């Protein structure tokens, strides 16, 4: 369970309020106009942006001021955050040990994660030798190897073609089901919402609205959401 309790995020003149509870094991899509604060919301949950007021709790324990690495979360960004001078295996290994001093069990976990995303034969390559889709799989393997209870995705597949994006979304959903992780994904694509989300968090007008059923909101959206969806 992840609780955003009367939480407010402020960055300069920008302010975003959120008050909601999210259940682990559910998939949430975060949608809304550009500049509304979707990515800022994810960054605050992960600990990359400070919370100005309110509290953030995971399983009843306050984590508002915890370091990002202590929160039980991992985040997948659009640019994948891969280090070009490291091999695929090393990039994934960073998810376990930033100093890359991997023990035997760590190396086994990295190789298992690469096999799960279909990159077992690419472990010794560097990211520059891979396609965009393969690079996304490396980033996903790094998420997988960490086995955190929450996975946050900030439009990680936006640059991929439609078929490859669908493939990656399905893979993310499969991995979340296998590990029991909760997913929170920022997206602009209603098709992605229908494919992966149980519930939708609509962000607009300085507020992240409490989640509602994805199919219901998309089929019968309130006026503000209808205007956004067009």
From TrEMBL:
Database matches in Pfam families: ABC_tran
Record keywords, A-Z: ATP-binding, Cell inner membrane, Cell membrane, Membrane, Nucleotide-binding, Translocase, Transport
Ranges where the ABC transporter domain occurs: 2-230
SUPFAM superfamilies per record: P-loop containing nucleoside triphosphate hydrolases
Domain of life: Bacteria
GO molecular function, one term: ATP binding
PANTHER family in UniProt: SPERMIDINE/PUTRESCINE IMPORT ATP-BINDING PROTEIN POTA, THIAMINE IMPORT ATP-BINDING PROTEIN THIQ
Protein name, UniProt field: ATP-binding cassette domain-containing protein
Species of origin: Sulfitobacter faviae
């Amino acid at each position: 369970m992840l609780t955003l309790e009367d939480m407010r995020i402020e960055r300069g003149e920008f302010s975003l309020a959120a008050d909601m509870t999210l259940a682990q094991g559910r998939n949430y899509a975060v949608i809304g106009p550009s500049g509304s604060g979707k990515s800022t919301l994810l960054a605050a949950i992960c600990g990359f942006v400070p919370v100005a007021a309110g509290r953030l709790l995971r399983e009843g324990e306050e984590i508002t001021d915890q370091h990002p690495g202590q929160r039980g979360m991992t985040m997948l960004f659009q640019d994948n955050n891969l280090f070009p001078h490291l091999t695929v295996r090393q990039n994934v290994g960073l998810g376990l040990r930033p100093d890359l001093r991997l023990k035997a069990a760590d190396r086994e976990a990295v190789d298992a994660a690469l096999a799960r995303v279909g990159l077992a034969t690419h472990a010794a390559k560097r990211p520059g030798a891979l396609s965009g889709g393969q690079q996304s799989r490396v980033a996903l393997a790094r998420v997988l190897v960490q086995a955190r209870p929450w996975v946050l995705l900030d439009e990680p597949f936006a640059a991929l073609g439609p078929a490859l994006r669908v493939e990656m979304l399905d893979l993310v959903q499969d991995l979340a089901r296998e590990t029991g992780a909760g997913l929170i994904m920022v997206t602009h694509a209603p098709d992605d919402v229908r494919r992966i989300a149980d519930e939708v968090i609509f962000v607009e007008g300085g507020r992240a609205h409490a989640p509602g059923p994805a199919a219901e909101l998309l089929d019968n959206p309130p006026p503000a959401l209808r205007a956004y969806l067009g």
